[in-house]
């Protein structure tokens, strides 16, 4: 049922933006940004529930918590970068949006290096010498 709330909010915001955009483009942008933040806030509880399930699964499997934390950080960076890039794109700044996406990709790569190293070490141990 949450999707009905999200779509309803988005439709209302879209109508408001279309009405206001010609007279006050800045207010239209603010409505779009605020709507995005409200939708994100509606979903944050669901994200928290997923994180709790993943933590429980990691504990039960004996996986080190550092790996789960790293993966969650990577997912968070991806979502935040996408959200920020979309807001900037809405304001017509495609080049800045591209830079946000690039920064997100670089930060994800930096966080992934320890996991990639462990995978390579594990593969090397499995290979016959």
Order of helices and strands: HHHH
Q: Categorize the overall geometry.
A: elongated
- Which regions contain 5 or more consecutive residues with pLDDT less than 50? none
The gyration radius over C-alpha positions equals: 20 Å
Q: Portion of residues in helices?
A: over 70%
Strand share of the residues? under 5%
Summarize the structure.
The protein has 129 residues and is mainly α. The protein has helices at 2-20, 25-61, 65-90, 94-126.
Task: Draw up the topology in text.
Layout: H1 2-20, H2 25-61, H3 65-90, H4 94-126
3D architecture notes:
- The mean pLDDT is 91.
- The protein has helices at residues 2-20, 25-61, 65-90, 94-126.
- The protein is an all-alpha fold and 129 residues long.
- Helix 3 runs antiparallel to helix 4 (94-126).
- It is built from four helices and no strands.
Please supply descriptive tags for the structure shown above:
129 residues; mainly alpha; elongated
């Amino acid at each position: 049922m949450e999707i009905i709330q999200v779509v309803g909010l988005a439709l209302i915001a879209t109508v408001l933006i279309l009405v206001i955009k010609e007279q006050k483009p800045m207010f239209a942008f603010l409505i779009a940004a605020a709507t995005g933040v409200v939708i994100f806030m509606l979903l944050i509880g669901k994200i928290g529930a997923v994180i709790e399930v993943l933590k429980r699964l990691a504990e039960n499997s004996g996986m080190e918590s550092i790996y789960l934390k790293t993966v969650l950080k990577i997912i968070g960076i991806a979502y935040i970068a996408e959200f920020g890039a979309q807001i900037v794109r809405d304001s017509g700044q495609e080049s800045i949006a591209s830079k946000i996406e690039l920064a997100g990709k670089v930060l994800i790569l930096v966080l992934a290096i320890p996991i990639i190293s462990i995978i390579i070490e594990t593969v090397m141990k499995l290979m016959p010498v």
